[in-house]
Design brief:
By secondary structure, the protein is mainly alpha-helical. The chain has 9 helices and no strands. The mean pLDDT is 85.
Length: 203
């Protein structure tokens, strides 16, 4: 690969990343309606032509932006868990219980804050926009599959427990949007859930 081609690819990747970051910020601050192509381009410091070159429609852009950020956060969850050692599923000693709690905490952090606000904006808007829903559903399926795999690896192998764990984390994300959960209270809830999962397997 020539130096010129490599630089062009780097510029293209940087432009794409600027558009994705600007879109998430717009969604969190302005909502779906306010996240116009013009608003995103202005915030990213780019022309609308650059935006159209990378993403054909606004709906493709907003869905790609949220999915990209979620996947980035989940990648960091995996990296941090891998530093702690092998998967914990099937083990019940104190060290493994601690890893399970850590996985829950990292997942809860990934599914909260401005990212989650942006996701909810899309979910609500998609109820009345067929084109947006058509883009959003496959992206949500991919994210949910990744979430389930992380739970299966580091939290529990039981399909029902996986679904309940994700429902708990997603629900905590919603309830913490207006008023953030106190750190100690969030830790108590996640630790209690980890103990219930461990107790269920022992039973």
């Amino acid at each position: 690969m020539s130096v010129q081609v490599r630089r062009q690819e780097e510029r293209s990747a940087a432009t794409r990343r600027a558009l994705l970051d600007a879109t998430v910020n717009c969604l969190a601050e302005l909502g779906y309606t306010g996240t116009t192509s013009a608003a995103v381009a202005e915030r990213a410091g780019l022309s609308r032509g650059a935006q159209l070159h990378h993403f054909g429609t606004r709906d493709q852009l907003v869905v790609a932006a949220v999915e990209h950020l979620v996947q980035e956060r989940l990648r960091r969850v995996r990296e941090q868990m891998e530093l702690l050692g092998p998967p914990v599923v099937g083990h019940e000693d104190a060290a493994d219980a601690g890893k399970r709690e850590m996985a829950l905490r990292l997942l809860a952090e990934a599914l909260s804050g401005p990212l989650y606000a942006a996701s909810l904006e899309l979910w609500v808007a998609a109820r009345a926009h067929d084109a947006l829903r058509a883009e959003l559903v496959p992206a949500e399926d991919r994210v949910n599959a990744e979430l389930a795999e992380i739970c299966r690896t580091y939290v529990t192998g039981d399909p029902i427990e996986i679904r309940l764990t994700l429902d708990l984390l997603l629900g905590r994300g919603v309830s913490g949007l207006l008023v953030a959960h106190p750190g100690h209270r969030q830790a108590e809830v996640l630790a209690a859930w980890a103990r219930r999962l461990q107790g269920g397997r022992r039973g």
